Amino acid sequence: MDKISFFSADYRDGRVHIGGKSYPAGTFAAHLLTQYYINDTAARIIVFTSDNWLLERSLERGYLYVQKFLRAGADILNIFNALPWLKPFDMLDVDAERNRIAELFTEENGNRIVEYFQRRSKVMAMDEGQVMYNILPKEFDEVFFKESAALLSEVQKTLAFYDGLRNDLMKAFKQLKTFASRLDEVDRFDEEHLLPLALEIFGSVPFPVTTEYVPILKSTRSKTETLARRLYFDSYYSFVITDFFEGLHHGHYPRQCDICKKYFLMTSAARQKYCTGYAPFKVKGKAITCRKYAARINRKELADGNPVIRIYKNRCSAIRVERQRVKIDDALAAAALALAKEYMQFAKNDPDYANGQYEMDMSRERLYAEADRRLNGK
Q: Among 87, 103, 142, 322, which has the minimal tally of Cβ within 10 Å of its Cβ?
């Protein structure tokens, strides 16, 4: 088995298709941040992965204690009691995977691996004459060796995947939480500004992912197919970080709500502080969303959250300070304020200008130069 075949996802145009449904890329990174502590999801998964690394090491060294092999299978099956709480596992064919685990970690398979190791040791102990004339010992059986090697490979890859969940969960959670906590360090919430922060936190993230191109429906109602990348993941970490960076490429990023403290996925560059989920409080006995609750307590998202308005207000404030300090006269200050307002209104109606030329036009040097030119009719 080259991959955990039940764990795959299709990516196309900023969306991830998994379990027959489609979500904005980045959805599952945001879900991990929220779900990590709820119902002790991470703890319940981690507790059953703490000892199986010893089994992995014994298999690498060529020996096996069958009872430990059976206990490892039971531990992995126990993970499935909590694993469906963590997306996307609730969307995958968990029952089929659970049956595969049960059929893989049996006493019969354990004894087969032990016998394979014993027979292989006989082959490895051949003397020089046997090697020279290719005289294999009676313990060698080509079909048995081939099937046993495939069985051992599947066991090792399965152990690596599920035992890796412990570190995968903790590492991904810590890095994603750090990223979300440092969002306000960047000037804008777009790929250009968020990517350097992400690379600083995550660094280079090399991991093997098997890729194939498959046809998928453009939408659940569509009859037309389009091409998508199907990725098979050998670890949970490779999935959730792929999901994070795929989302980041399309301007999606996880953010923590100031009201409920849960994480949600932002899909625009607005400085939104509150999610659309329900607040942990009620108003007059009725549930209310975090955004509506924030508005009621005068914490609604102000225009300052809009980068266009923020740049405008900062520049106007600077102009007034310079006028008070008599660094510019009343006429230039009035002209500069009027021009800044003109640029701001244009930027609000033209996204291309807002994302490009606007910030340069609002710089001190350019704004004063243009205001002076207009004052003097040049």
A: 142
